[in-house]
Amino acid sequence: MSSSQEFFAAYDALLARWPTGTTEIDVPTPYGITRVHAYGPAEATPVLLLHGGGSTGAVWFANAPALGTYHRVLAVDILGDAGHSIPSRRPLRTTADLMAWLDALLDGLTVSRAHLLGHSYGGWMALTYALHAAQRVDRLVLLDPTQCFANFRPGFLLRSLPMLLRPTKARARAYLDRETAGTDTDLGWKRLYALAVSGFANRKLVVGRRPDPTTLSVPLLVLLAGRSDAHDAAKVAVRARKAVPDARIEILSELTHFAMPTAVPAQTNRRITDFLAGNHEKQAALGVV
Description:
Helices cover 38% and strands 18% of the residues. By secondary structure, the chain is an alpha/beta fold. Strands 1, 2, 3, 4, 5, 6, 7, 8 and 9 form a nine-stranded mixed β-sheet that branches. A hairpin with a 2-residue loop joins strand 1 (23-29) and strand 2. Helix 1 runs antiparallel to helix 7 (187-199) and helix 6 (169-179) packs across helix 7 (187-199). It is globular, with a radius of gyration of 18 Å.
C-alpha cells in the first residue's frame, strides 16, 4: 500500500466514526475545491470547524454528535493541508488570500453567519477571520490556539524542527507520543496525523502575523490545555483576559496541546455547547455564576 493509500485508509477509518447522517460536500472556491463534512439539522445555526495543522476535518468525530444536536456542523479540510481538499492553480499565499478563501467557502455553503471553532492553527485562522468579517461570526471558540495571544515556546519549536525538516511516519509518531503522554488522545487520529505529516511533504499552510484580539467584537470562549508544550497556558490566559475582558477562558489542566480535541471530549463538548447556547451569559444574568 502506498503512503497516499495508507493515509486515506486512516482518514476513512476516522470518518467512519462520525455519526450516521454525516454527508460530504465539495465546495468550489477560487483557490480550489474544499471538502466539508456536514452533520446536524440543515436549518440550524452552522458551526464551522477549523482543525490544527495536519489533523484534517475528520478529527472532530468525537465532537460532531454533541455539536450537531442543535447546530449544523461544517468541518473543513483546510486547503493546502493534508486531506480531500484540492488546491487550484491559484495558491493561498497570504493572510488576505486565506480570508478570501473562507469568504468564498461560506458563500459556497450559502452560510451568511456562523459560529467558528478552531484548534491550534485553526484557532489562529478562526480569530483572524472573526476580526476580518465580524458580521459573519456569531460566536468564536478557540481550543489551545497558537499565535493568537502569545508566541510559541522556543523549546516547542526546537522539538518540532526535526519532524518538519525530515518528516517520517516514525518520527512524527514518536513526536506525537511524547506530546500527548498521559492523555487518552485517540490512537486512530495519531496514526492519521503521522501519515499526514510524512505523506504530504508539499502541504503548505499560510502563516501570518499574530492578530490584535483587542478589537474583537464577538463573544469568545478560549479553552487552554494546562499541559501544553506549545505555550504557557497560564500566561496565555492572562493575556487573553487582558485583550478580551469579556471572554470566557478556562484551562483544562489534564490536557496537552495535541490531545485536543480527541481527549476527554465530553468535558470539551459540554463547555462548547453551553457557550454556543449562551448558557454562561444567562446564568450570569441570573446571578448563578
